[in-house]
Amino acid sequence: METSAGIYKSALFPDGFSHGIVPHTPVQKAMLDASVDCIKVISTDGTLLQMNRAGCVALGVAEDSGFGMPWLPLLPDGVHQAGQIALSHAAQGQNARFPGQSEAEGETRYWDNLLTPVIDEAGEVQLILCVSRDVTAKARLERELEIAMEGERLLAREMRHRIKNVFAVASGLISMCERQAAADPDGASATEILRGRLEALALASDTAFEQSEMPYSSAHALDVGLLVASVLKPYEGKYHGAGEQAFVAQRDMTTVSLFLHELATNSVKYGALGSENGRVDIDWRTKGAELVLTWVETGGPAVSDPKRSGFGSAMIDRVVRSAGGSVERAWEPGGLRVVMRLPAAESA
C-alpha cells in the first residue's frame, strides 16, 4: 500500500509540490484512472480536490462534478471519527491509516485507507493524498481463518475436557464397583463388575457420539426409554428411569445422548452417581409439541449454583439450543435438577 501511494504521489507531483494548484494533466488523469485503487487529493481542511474514476464509482460522485465538496461526509457514518483523526495527523505531516467499510448493492466492502501528506519546499503540508484499497477478499479470508482457528481451539478444549472426564469416570466406576462387590461377597468380584461397566460405558459412548453418522429420515424415531437405558447402562442400579412412551427424532438422538452422557459424567465426578447413597431419577414425557426429560439427583453431596458453567455444560446447552430446545438447571437442597425440552417426534 505504501509503495503504491508513493507511485501515485510521484505521478501527481513528479517535481514535488512547488505551486498552489493541483496537477491534472490528461496523462496524469489517465494514469490514475487506470488504477483500481481509489485515489483522492484532499486539502488539509478535508475538501476533496481531485479523484480518479475508481474513487468516483466507489463514493458515488460524478467524474465531471468538479469536486470541491467535503470528503468525510462521502464516507459511511461509522468511519467518520477514524477518518477525521487520520486527516488531522496527515495535516500535521504524518502518514495516517484507518480501516473503512461500505455497503453497496447489499454487499459489505472493506477498505484500507492511507493518507500521505504532500509537503512543499518550505516543509509545510499543502495537500493530502488519500489512497483507498478494496481489501474485502483479504478481510473475508482473515474472518474465515479466525473462524477455523476458533474451531480448532474449541476442539482442543473439548478433547482436554473429555480426557479429564475419562479419568474421573473411571475413578468413580472403580469406587462404585468396589462398594457393589463388598455388599455381595459371594457375587462377582470388583474387577468383573468393573469390566462389565466399562464395556457398557464404551457402548454408551458409541450411542452418544456416533448417532450423527446415521442417515436421517423424519419417519425414523427412537423410544426415549430405550435411549436412556442404552446411554446409562454403565450406571445400572444407581438410577431409576420411568416415563410415558415418548419418541425422539433421529436427528435429535445425538443431542439427547450427549445430554445424558454429560449429566452422568458430572454426577460421577461431583454428584449422586459418585456417592454411596446417591440416586438419579429420570422422567420423560410428551407435553404438547415438546419432549420433556427431567433428571433429578438425590442422596449426593450438597450442591450449589456454580458461578459459571463448565465447558461441558455450556457445550451441551449450545447443542440443545441448536436443536430448538432448552435446558433448565436448579440446584435444590436435595440435589441437582435438570429439565431438557426438545421438539417432540412422532412414533417410529
From TrEMBL:
DNA repair listed as a keyword: no
SMART domains, A to Z: HWE_HK
GO molecular function, one term: ATP binding
Coiled coil segments of this chain: none
UniProt EC number: 2.7.13.3
The keyword Repeat appears for this protein: yes
Enzyme class: transferase
Domain PAC: 92-147
Source superkingdom: Bacteria
The protein's name: Blue-light-activated histidine kinase
UniProt source species: Mesorhizobium australicum
Higher taxonomy: Bacteria, Pseudomonadati, Pseudomonadota, Alphaproteobacteria, Hyphomicrobiales
